[in-house]
UniProtKB/TrEMBL annotation:
<feature type="domain" description="Inner membrane protein YejM N-terminal">
    <location>
        <begin position="7"/>
        <end position="254"/>
    </location>
</feature>
<feature type="transmembrane region" description="Helical">
    <location>
        <begin position="173"/>
        <end position="195"/>
    </location>
</feature>
<feature type="transmembrane region" description="Helical">
    <location>
        <begin position="137"/>
        <end position="161"/>
    </location>
</feature>
<feature type="transmembrane region" description="Helical">
    <location>
        <begin position="61"/>
        <end position="83"/>
    </location>
</feature>
<dbReference type="Pfam" id="PF11893">
    <property type="entry name" value="DUF3413"/>
</dbReference>
<keyword id="KW-1133">Transmembrane helix</keyword>
<dbReference type="InterPro" id="IPR024588">
    <property type="entry name" value="YejM_N"/>
</dbReference>
<feature type="transmembrane region" description="Helical">
    <location>
        <begin position="21"/>
        <end position="41"/>
    </location>
</feature>
<keyword id="KW-0472">Membrane</keyword>
<feature type="transmembrane region" description="Helical">
    <location>
        <begin position="90"/>
        <end position="110"/>
    </location>
</feature>
<protein>
    <submittedName>
        <fullName>DUF3413 domain-containing protein</fullName>
    </submittedName>
</protein>
<keyword id="KW-0812">Transmembrane</keyword>
Amino acid sequence: MNLSQHNQFSSKASQLLSWGHWFTFANIGLALLISLSYLFADSPPTSFMGITYMLVTWLSHTSFIAFLAFVLTVFPLSLVFPYPRHIRGMAAVIATCGASLLTLDAYVYVNLGYHLNPSALPEIISLLWNRLTTSPALTTFLAGGIVLLILGFQLVVSNYTWHHLARLKQFKFARYAISFLVVCFAFSHSIHIWADANLKFDITKQDNVLPLSYPTTAKSLLAKNDLLDIETYNQAHSVKINNQNINYQPPAPLLKCDDFTQANVDIFVFDTDAQLVEFANNHKELHKTELFLQPTNHDDTLFGLVYGLPSFYKAAILQEQILPAWQSQRRSIEVMGIDSLSFINDQAHTNNAIRVINGAAEQAPRNNSHIFAFSLASDNAEVVTTSTLYTSDKNIAEVNGLIQPSDLITTSVGKYLNCSAIAKQTMLGVNLYKKKDDMGVNYSQGVVIAYKKDRITLIDSDGNFKNISAAEGFSIEQRLDIPFLVQSIKKLKTFSE
């Protein structure tokens, strides 16, 4: 094919390519504006180099995505179908779809902490559906308005750049801008290589902030959520999940429980399986389940049982001897035979609603009380293990999926005492009567524990991860589920922010 200047086809294609560059340049500006939301979705970097990396990556990576979209869509269309009016219209529609998709991804990232992802489709659909059902008119108006606004922008830019192409070609700033973006692109990758080699987590924790960027590792994920003790790592090359300086912030104001129901709950904790079996044999009305997930560290198990929280908050709470946020004269608790938690006993009541009893105390269940009974896990190689839970509530024994110690106190306050709002506001356990999905998070011995159905993911103090089967305990070869872990870590940090 003769592509000389005298060839009409060549002339149109050349003009369209020149127009396409300016059209793409305008869309780079729009993409940069939309992608600003990613930078404000997470805590900002604290070092000068971290801030520099954030800015140059935002400029170069976002520009690269916009340019790549042009190369893969408008550019080939301009070559095979060089009809200006049609190409400009199709380009406006394509760019509108791309910018709208970027806006949707930014909205999902701000709310859920991860990008559009097939593995997170149920969570994303749930987010959008809840938004739509909460305020359908407003949501429809905003979503439609954003799409129409983007489309209007594209049409105006498309027509303006075509009709003023000759004048735009005289401007030289575009060349300098393109050169600057290329330098930023190379500089950002150089910084990341240096940071990855020198363990600069203030930089590498920004992985996966922007769409289609570096894949997140377990170590980067922990750093991003401030769960790595970076100073200790730099000194001793030993990363530790940092919970020593966590500030526990109880919810305020505390919701009221106007529909309080008087009930008794007795939770028996035995030191050995033999004691548990003997207790169960003496109380034939108990039902059992084999999927009781508890930390092998006894103190962490007992803390979660009483407070309904992971031991992530244990140091801060026990140091100040903070009472459970849900406790009051009408929702009182008594701990028997557990010295480390005896300070929370409500001495004002002789008949406390909830009792947590060490089996060695040889206390009998009260009449018409809801009973839970389990034995503390024996030490083993893993941080968590599944064991047997006995309960007088048949519905609890038939719950699908894993049950954690924090779920017992949450169910007791939320269901038996009829204070579901209090339970939801102050605990991270699950009311087993309202369990919608088989997911949960815990923390013990410096390890983040997240489970989803039968799969338990453990992220240790080095940022390494392992998947194990909850029922059988064997290792599962599976990639790190970033969206699920982001969601779990956000839940873990509910009362620290």
